[in-house]
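Q: Predict the bound structure with 2-deoxy-2-amino glucitol-6-phosphate.
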Amino acid sequence: MCGIVGYIGEKEAPGLLLDGLKRLEYRGYDSAGLAVIDNGRVKIKRNEGKLEHLERALLRDPLKGKVGIGHTRWATHGKPSETNAHPHKAGSIVVVHNGIIENYLTLKRTLTKAGHTFKSETDTEIIAHLIQSYLFKGDSFEQAVRNALKRIKGSYAVGVICEDEPTKLIAARNESPLVIGLGEDEWFAASDIPAFLSYTRKVIFLDDGEMAVLSKKGVKLTSLTGKKVPQKVTTIDWSPSMAEKGGFKHFMKKEIFEQPRSLIDTFGGRIAGGKGTVFLEDCNLTSQDVKKIEKIFIVACGTSWHAAIVGKFMIEDLCRIPVEVDLGSEFRYRNPLIDEKTLLLLISQSGETADTLAAMREGLKKKARIISICNVVGSSMARGSHGVIYTHAGPEIGVASTKAFTTQLAALYLLALFLGKQKGSLSAEKVKTLIKDLVRLPHQIEKILEADTTIQTIAHQYMNYRDFLYLGRGINYPIALEGALKLKEISYIHAEGYPAGEMKHGPIALIDEKMPVVVLLSKGVTFDKIMSNVEEVRARGGIIIAVTPKMSKSIDSKADTVIKIPENNSYLMPVLFSIPLQLLAYHIAELRGTDVDQPRNLAKSVTVE
Ligand code: AGP
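A: Predicted complex:
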């Protein structure tokens, strides 16, 4: 999730672009750059690292010009570096981009064959070359952008300037946000409102497939086919701080609501539903490598460890490979039985968690094959592993992990399909069905998010209880752990997650009318068993909050509160169960007035052992 800013008007662009990028820094960045047109010539400045490096470079060597584009990068393809930083230039075209181009390898091959040479590892650079190729064929700047974007598959928000037509700035979007700011004789384009909120509150939100041509004459809004689009101007009344959170009160809430998008970005470009194939290039695992794997260890901490347990269920059932799960803080002290026939899978949002990095070193020492599932490109774990599966959740600012967790589950699901296909334990037909279920997930999450106010009301009812128990069975047991962790880490209420079958071996002593018990009920072999756990709780006066797919009616008369969710296959139910539990924890914490985004005593990434 990168930050884009574009400007055209009467003021000097560099300062405005930099100011706009600073207001988008919550979107995360590992490099930044800007380009301006000065007397018909494009000047570009890019730096790896934080925005202040670019700022210092501009102080040393200022740029000037009244048309420009700027970018802060959250790397998805290609490590953080000056070469991979945006803007990217090809001929007279300069581009900044936010999103993921799913067919970039195909386009890159075609353009290379046509004589284009590429400097970066990014998917973005092909956009500049594609537009240039149309310009070269005689298209106008505007037509060249249209024709190029029609060939792009995937998500994009782009800002484009052209040396040959220096009085225009083009902005276009498909599935990645882009907003136009209408100032006094000046116009802005940005991936989010805070970039120019101090200059104007009048905005036009671009929709998918729309393109805006900004010039000193104003804004021309069309579809990619060139058809005029009516301009719907909105006046923003958010405070700058609220604007940074996209209108949400907290980053955590924003990130919970980003999950349909982050899931699409994570599986987009990695599945061929029609063929029943999963592509995990960066894993660097050949079918021979897969055949050599005798055992898998999954090692992680905290929420990522909960994902690891779900991953065990997925991989053992779909691939028939034995899986052990370990906590990062324990793994290296138990002299684990790993060797070159072991696949060591590390899961970490930050890619910097000290205990999980220590597990990586242990694995390297014992010659295991190491793959990491990370959300930060170029993180220590990603660089130290033999292969990586990046989650494309974008920067997760809230300390309590939400979208990173569900995209980890999606990455594990993709890995299970990939390994199962390679090993022959999954037919192409079976993979096709499982891919179809994955593609349904984002819309199903949107349906759950529509119940946000209902869950807020439920949170109000339970916000003053002092202890919670979360119960789940099988692949949903780690979601009971995760739901309990979400509640305790942001609301400071004590909560425990347990395998439902374990309740009678001790925790049942806790049950009374002061103990809400959240029960995850999904259809399957253990449904009846977990229903009897519900009866055991009720018989002791416990309070039941049931989370269950729509069709299981039998719980309605037995629970105090029922949260209904859509149904998917058993491997993906953990994703759907997670959403209401995230919202329940969020609303209880918000009602209790705790610091939801930065809870006491916690850090976003625990880089110490
Ligand atoms: C998640 O809500 C917590 N903030 C924490 O448990 C986190 O999952 C853990 O520290 C691991 O972090 P990582 O995924 O960056 O390795």
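A: Residues 301-304, 348-350, 353, 356, 399-401, 489, 605-606 surround 2-deoxy-2-amino glucitol-6-phosphate (CB under 6 Å).
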